[in-house]
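Example 3.2
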Amino acid sequence: MRGQRKASGVRRALPSSPVALLGVAILFLLAGCGGEQPVAVSLTHNLITGRVDAPALTSADSLYIGFDRRLEPKEDVLQIASLAAWLEGQTGLSIGVSVTPRGSSVVDDLCAGRVDFAAVGTVSYLQSNDQCGARILLRGRNAEGQDTYKSAIIVRAGSPIHTVADLRGRAFAFGAPNSTQGHLIPRLMLEEAGVSIHDLSVYAFHDSHAATANAVTSGRYEAGALQDTLARELEARGLVRIVAYSGPYPSSGIVAGPQVPSDTARTLIDALLRFDPLGDDAESVHGWSRTEMPGGFVTARDGDYAGLREIARTIGLLER
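Structure, written as tokens:
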């Protein structure tokens, strides 16, 4: 864990542009280091050359923002890094990006203090709140301005599967175990259709929605569960067909770790409530329309997640 840092540390704010994100520090929690020694590396080298060069020094005052895996790793990093750059320009805070290694969880990073804030789905929020008292600050709005999202169950175009009930005896691809749209909500959709997870011929979990989509489009699995945004994009390209959408549930959001002072959290909230990715800030962030927060943010309360908390507890996702 890093040593205690000042909450009000400031360094030179970066310009709010896509190019500016190349200056944002990326904190890799390398699996080989057991998570004990975070390493800051150059985002330029990571994204352009695919290499991790010698550690770069970062300010002891830096705050770090993590994220649940969603799309391809580089796309995830570009999206969050561009948001971090925008936040630096808006707040004057020094904000880096933390990339959680495979096999680890952003929940662990939040509770260990390696990450101060994180863009996460509901399950990751509920787990971090349950384990260490992490706080939900904001949740995302979709392109229509609603602060909810849906899961989608997909199959390949031309598949004989037309209903959720048809999935009995089929091979199914879930997202990560702690994914709301990739696991929690689809489990509920299956059960509502009378299909237990044990009624599937085989099922597997995948690191990201992109990996789940690939598992279905490649034919390795007959169906899978995705975030609604990606599912619609793939259906429009003729790669998949959407069998069913879930009902609306509270969307992904921004969570603060238990060590983050209230005034620092308030600074971040105030900035993100001004964030306008569909308007004035559209050119400042990378690929934000592909996130689960394309319309910006609204304030969130823990009580908003009571229903999903009960479902998560029922299927064992909140067991420590």
